[in-house]
Amino acid sequence: MSTETASAPEATAPDKHAALRLDAVIAGYGRTTVLRDVNVTVPAGKIVALLGANGAGKTTLLRIASGMLRPTAGTVHLGGDDVTRTPPHQRVRKGLCLIPEGRGIFRDLTVTDNLRLFTPPWEGGERRADAVDRALDVFPALQTRRGHLAGHLSGGQQQMLALARCYLANPRVIMLDEVSLGLAPKVVDEIFESLRTLATTGLTLLLVEQYVNRVLPMADKVVLLDRGQVVYDGDATDLDEETVLGGYLGTG
């Protein structure tokens, strides 16, 4: 695919049925602009891979979507709601879950206690225990680690715990920042198998991922960022690994 065919898409009419949408977003830190007039639509029930070289703006985009960073201009919609000025905890209640780089688990709590913290507050004692059991059914590698401190788990188990906690919050959209970072290839395979399982439940996934060869086959759509701008937004089947690595990530 040539660079010409991957030019930035023109803004289109808003899709009210999108799970997540960023329209004309400009954002950065202080006087440094990172995202420049970014339009991204994440269709409901789909897997979207957000790719780009280091410094392209991927993590900044996730921070804007989650509410951790306010855009200088533009809007963010979750479902049909404008959440541009909605704080992060309210976006969580609306069904958005972010698993940041580093996983964000409570290392000094057990696996079970980490999971209990993320069960909905309206769940009573028995129902809360049932919810934890359901999460462990989806992530069976954690079953025998229920009483272990999260900080004593392997990197892969910690990532699965982060996914299980997110699952317990009954999200509609899960955003993951470098889910495979620092993990052995075999563990990465297990993590991606868990992601495929989550996708079959109808969840929407937005993945920032370094393993292009793993994320492209499972993605429905790819968004490529280059220096804060969208240079490709389309079907994953229209891209190949060599094009992405050589043309956009600079590793080909």
Detailed description of the structure:
The structure is a single chain. The relative contact order is 0.19. The model is unreliable at 1-14 (pLDDT under 50). Helix 3 runs parallel beside helix 5, helix 4 (125-138) crosses helix 5 (155-168) and helix 5 packs parallel to helix 6 (185-199). The chain is globular and about 45 Å long. It has 2 domains: 4-95 and 171-247, 3-Layer(aba) Sandwich (Rossmann fold), CATH 3.40.50.300; 103-169, no CATH class. The longest helix is centred in the C-terminal third of the chain and has 15 residues, at 185-199. The protein has helices at residues 58-66, 88-93, 111-117, 125-138, 155-168, 185-199, 212-218, 241-247; strands at residues 18-29, 32-43, 47-52, 73-78, 81-82, 96-99, 173-177, 204-208, 221-226, 229-235. A hairpin with a 2-residue loop joins strand 4 (73-78) and strand 5 (81-82). The chain is of the alpha/beta class and 252 residues long. The chain has a 6-stranded mixed β-sheet with strand order 6-7-8-3-9-10, sandwiched between helices. A 4-stranded antiparallel β-sheet has the order 2-1-4-5, with helices on one face. The chain is built from 8 helices and 10 strands.
